[in-house]
Queue: 2 jobs
Job 1
Amino acid sequence: MSSNRPRVTIIDACKNFGKIEAVKNANITVEKGEVVLVIGPSGSGKSTLLRCVNRLEKLTSGEIWIDGDCLTAHHADIRRIREEVGMVFQSFNLFPHLTALGNVTIGPRIVKKTPQGIAEKEGRALLDRVGLGDKYGSYPDQLSGGQQQRVAIARALAMNPKVMLFDEPTSALDPEMIKEVLDVMLALAEEGMTMLVVSHEMGFAKAAAHKVVFMDNGEVIETAPPEVLFHNPQSERTQKFLDHIL
Amino acid sequence: MAEINKSTPHRTRIEISDGALIPERDERALFSSWRISFFGAIALLVILPLISPDPYRRIITFIPDGILMTFIVTTLSIFFALIVGLFTGLGRISRIKIINRIATVYVEVVRGIPLLVQLFYIYYAMGRIVQVPRLVAAVTAMTFCYGAYLGEIFRAGIQSIPKGQMEAALAIGMSRGQAMSRIILPQTIRVVLPPVGNEFIALLKDSSLVSILAVADLLRRGREFASKTFYYFETYTVVALVYLVITLFFSKLVSIMEERLNRREQQ
């Protein structure tokens, strides 16, 4: 039925904060099962654009479609669409008053009204999947940053989303914890999860990304497969940025 | 009156500027100021009736009804004030303009009028419509006043929770209401517990004002005794000591509670 539609379509997206144009006429498409990485200097609007995809920020103009639902339509059922879009934050944002299992089950229990027993069974399976089978009862402040971020990924997966958004998921982590989070993300990508990722993890980009989008100053400058964008960028600005980070 | 002090990113603490009633945690010395005041007051309350039974023993047997009434006024008022305060705090951060404005005006008005004036005003204003018992008028006025103060504490408490918590809750599909009741408020309670305890003690002290409406609280009972016997100095000594013992007792309770919360957080 809907299998051939792109999971995320961003059309001419603009976002202004007062006079500041954070995003200008951005166009990005994420097909089903595709992993799209967004890179760019800080302040280039990539996080803002990502936050628009689940309506934490509202576009000033333009359209965003999530698998056939228009998020920017006047009567859009934002909550239902948000259920289908998982989000992982830079600073994890786990709920500190709930255990790891509580964090993972609260979404299904409250939003989907899943019975507690079923939610917990699925929650435990998800925590097992991100390698935290021994941490069901731990509170966020008892976990390392890497473990917290993996709980956050499990929490987003618990809503069974059609697409996962990652907003610089490893930027707040100590170097030795980055790999454990990236491994989980790689496994997700291999299982065919549709992902839109804001990150500068080049290793992840080369291993998993189908497309890399370079943003600068609120604009999408270039979109290409990673091997093309990294080694043979078409735009001078892309080249300049890559010189800085590679 | 409530101010947020973000010392560390994850542990926020609200401090109230009007007085250091709640003992500091590290004040553990044998002769801490709390111990001197508390046990000193109790000692006086025991010794005075022993060395001069008349009038002290008579005073002490006369006022317990008043202590009970003080507790009734305080407990009822704090109970209703917590409810009013929660809704006021939510109203103060509401995105609906009219609700926000109502809550803000309420807080401004209450803060600008002395509690004693509010007591008179509410008693006589209510009296115009229907004659209410004095206790009801007293509790209404205390609730009206302290609801605004507690509202500011709830508002500060809610705002001390990092923005990412609401965003994370919305991102998994919760409504704002669900996010507030399931994610934000449970975290707020921990933050507001110490300042709410402080307000409880302040309310207990302010409850002495209801004696002006002839509610037979501790102060009123003292006055009744004194005006009959002319033992003004002796009576008010006992009244003051009893207030002191009660408030010091509760301030210790609040500090123990706060310490427990901190310890659990550190584990």
Job 2
Amino acid sequence: MTRAAVEVRSLVVRAGHRWMLDIEHLRVDLGSVVALMGPNGAGKTTLLRACLGLARPARGSCTVLGVDVGGLHGPGLASLRRRIGYVPQLLPVRSELPLTVREVAAIGRTAHAGLFHALTGEDWRVVNGWLERLELTALADRAFSQVSGGEQRKAIIARAMAQDPELLLLDEPTANLDLGWRERIVDTVQSLHTQTRISVLLVCHELEVLPPACRKVILLEGGRVSASGSPETVFTTARVSQLYGAGLRAVHEGGRHAVVPGGSAHD
Amino acid sequence: MIDLVFWAPVMTGGALAGASSGVLGTFIVGMRIPFLGVCVAHAALAGAVFGGLAGLEGQQLLLPALAGAVLTALALGLLNPQRAHLDDNTVLSFLFSATMGLAFLGIGLYAIMGRSDNDVRSLLWGSLNFCRWRDVRLMLAASTALAIYVVLFFKELRAILFSRADAEASGIRATAVWTGFLILTAATLTVNFQTVGGLMIYSLICNPAAAAFQLTRGCGPVLALAAVFGAASGLGGFLIAAGTDLPSGAVIVLVSSALLGVAAMIGHRGRR
């Protein structure tokens, strides 16, 4: 059996008296691209936070890259986090932020270099390499706060990839982007996976955001897994109608997926 | 013509306070927590007030002031804002009001006990014109410690400046590095505070850093320019005040504000 990048068993995560996640079993195979979908408040971001040890389980286990996150603290947790590239949903965009795009990408090498060590020439080569692959070289010395939302997303992806991660966690990487930028980000995720075979857990709301490499979707509802499988089997027209309302259907073509008007629950 | 030898410690102290506050301001303004300066200053004031009530006086008040500021810095650093579900500025507001309440309660107790509160009141406003080499040596020690810390942990502080939560998520020991930085911030502000006062500290933290943000980019260049602007505000403000016989604290604040205004205009033109 393929090794798991993420494996969750009987996981319960609570916030105060309210439970956020109650997952019997969930698995992301090493080297695969898996999408985590579901309505707002379903627990998608909480699951990513549990993978990073930022949300602690009340019971059960969350094993990431072969390590049980729940048992980790301090240096052990920091060591696991260095192996995970994380692209958060909300970006810190402040006009007072003095960092350039290159400096933001270089944050990905910071934990690798370790305390008391400056970034080496090799670290900067890795950073510049990712800026080039993501077509950000021309913007590298511009202030992060002054480039467009899509370029900021790509800079954060460059930061995550500069970590040389074994697992990439993407939390709504196309949020607030226009159609053109959304497609560029989808292409970026697809080419990252093609080039590096990295394991990707992608949180998104729209079927259109799934890259062709994504062959598994996990649907979360109310903190529980309600369906799991290929995009075609999970997003049948009946489920699309149930989730988003009647009169919509899912189209699956050439490895891409979309929801369009014109279906019925009986299709 | 001013007596440069007599006023040398005042000018050096003003420049040092400005430069170190400018460096601190790069992180404090960059993370949008400008209240940190006044919060730490009031914690130091509360410490000094209760130190005074316990019988300490003069230079001895620095120790309880430092204790108050460092305890507040530790509370800020070790509190995980995400776990507490509180914004940094909400935590700062709580600590600021608590330390200010304690400080003024203590000042009230001086009156009840029939004692003079001149020593602690002078901390609130500072006394730059009475800065002596002994004070400058303390300021130099704190500024040097701060500079060494910023150089040693530059890349970690740069990551925290971007986002403390993201830095933690990428395996950086953000809580430890940030707490260490806050303790040094407390120490630097406390020794600066007795010279330039709690109120002037606020403008020296915010204005030079904000001016540097307008004119350059990149963490290193902004840090350097903020330190230069801070030193220029402290030194330039004093020289103008000495030449015009105006109050030095007020002129230093106005010079730093003017620098920010000019930088904003130049920055705006550059971006057009």
